[in-house]
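Quick review question:
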């Protein structure tokens, strides 16, 4: 069996983190999101993978290459125009042999569910449940069959949603050729499922675990979930008088300096220096070539590669891009005074604690304060002693 993974989109809701990379290459638990998916597909027994690429496709091709180092064979197909999921799927038609698994590239699934799906007769749609079905394609199910599908309804008929994982055979391509443009100006895969639903052919498979990584704060939820499963692996150097409690993955060439206190689960990448006297709290993932310095506290955050947080800083419940530098004393707030859910750009994160989303190459002067729910664009420069709040565009100078 083959697997098709759709990874061509930018992920505009993830900006500024997707300014220079596709959404599927955002890191979760020390690996690109797409790598977790590919490894689960492999472990489910599928080694022939077609990845549909587009936006910043070079980063995907460079990271995964032929797929051999991940135990799979990867073939890339470029979607030249971003014209919807059905258009993306049509690009792989010449390479499909028979039955295939199709996955959106921006979600977290369990290997066991993929194994169960491919044992079913096609066509199959994976489903999940949510407390906010109005944000997704809502389905109704009777006797394990999908009976209706409605996209982003203001009055959902159920809390069961289309999870973006399918089992198809080559018959789907004949259906795709009959599609017209949707009201959004795209060719929608969900429109192609109408015939299957009307004929009572589309089987529903309820996933045991499903996480849609649609917004930056969803990365924290997914990261927390993945970190719960790690086992300690210490490939770097831990100096004397370091306390480690819980699980820790420490990459090659990394050093944890004296006086540092780590509460796992945490991941520290390769060639990263932590300490002296730093405090890493549960849920923290630090990338490669980073510096987490003296008297720095980081809690439940994702720090991308090449970022420096060197002196007297606090980062809580935040997602920080690559190549950033925090001036001494710069801190990120992560809790509202009324303890209500934090909003970013007017949209609720659903989280009582959330700090900020910071793009790549953001430089802070000393003693800056970043307010809860801030989003700071890539390439921004922040002057010393500055309060940063709200939505900041890329390459802004904040004084």
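Suggested answer, residue by residue:
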């Amino acid at each position: 069996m083959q697997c098709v993974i759709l990874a061509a989109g930018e992920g505009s809701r993830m900006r500024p983190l997707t300014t220079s990379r596709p959404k599927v290459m955002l890191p979760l638990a020390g690996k690109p999101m797409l790598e977790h998916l590919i490894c689960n597909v492999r472990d489910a027994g599928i080694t022939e993978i077609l990845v549909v690429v587009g936006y910043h496709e070079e980063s995907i091709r460079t990271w995964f290459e032929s797929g051999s180092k991940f135990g799979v064979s990867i073939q890339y197909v470029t979607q030249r125009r971003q014209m919807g999921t059905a258009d993306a799927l049509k690009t792989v038609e010449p390479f499909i042999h028979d039955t295939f698994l199709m996955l959106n590239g921006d979600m977290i699934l369990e290997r066991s569910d993929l194994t169960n799906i491919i044992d079913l007769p096609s066509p199959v749609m994976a489903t999940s449940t949510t407390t906010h079905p109005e944000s997704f394609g809502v389905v109704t199910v009777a006797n394990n069959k999908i009976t209706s599908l409605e996209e982003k309804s203001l009055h959902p008929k159920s809390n069961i949603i289309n999870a973006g994982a399918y089992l198809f055979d080559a018959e789907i391509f004949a259906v795709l050729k009959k599609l017209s443009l949707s009201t959004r100006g795209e060719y929608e895969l969900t429109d192609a499922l109408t015939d299957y639903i009307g004929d009572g052919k589309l089987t529903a498979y309820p996933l045991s675990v499903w996480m849609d990584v649609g917004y930056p704060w969803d990365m924290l939820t997914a990261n927390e979930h993945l970190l719960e499963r790690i086992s300690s692996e210490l490939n770097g150097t831990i100096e004397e008088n370091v306390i480690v409690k819980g699980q820790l993955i420490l990459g090659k060439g990394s050093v944890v300096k004296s006086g540092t206190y780590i509460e796992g689960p945490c991941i520290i990448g390769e060639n990263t220096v932590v300490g002296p006297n730093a405090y890493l709290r549960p849920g923290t993932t630090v990338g490669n070539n980073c510096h987490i310095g003296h008297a720095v506290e980081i809690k439940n955050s994702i720090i991308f590669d090449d970022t420096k947080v060197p002196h007297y800083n606090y980062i809580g419940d935040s997602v920080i891009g690559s190549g950033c530098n925090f001036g001494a004393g710069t801190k990120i707030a992560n809790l509202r005074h009324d303890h209500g859910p934090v909003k970013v750009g007017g949209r609720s994160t659903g989280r009582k604690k959330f700090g900020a989303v910071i793009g790549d190459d953001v430089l802070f002067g000393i003693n800056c304060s970043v307010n809860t729910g801030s989003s700071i664009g890539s390439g921004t420069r922040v002057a010393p002693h500055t309060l940063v709040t709200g939505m900041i565009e890329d390459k802004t100078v904040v004084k």
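Why it works: The two ends are 56 Å apart (CA to CA). The chain has a mean pLDDT of 93.
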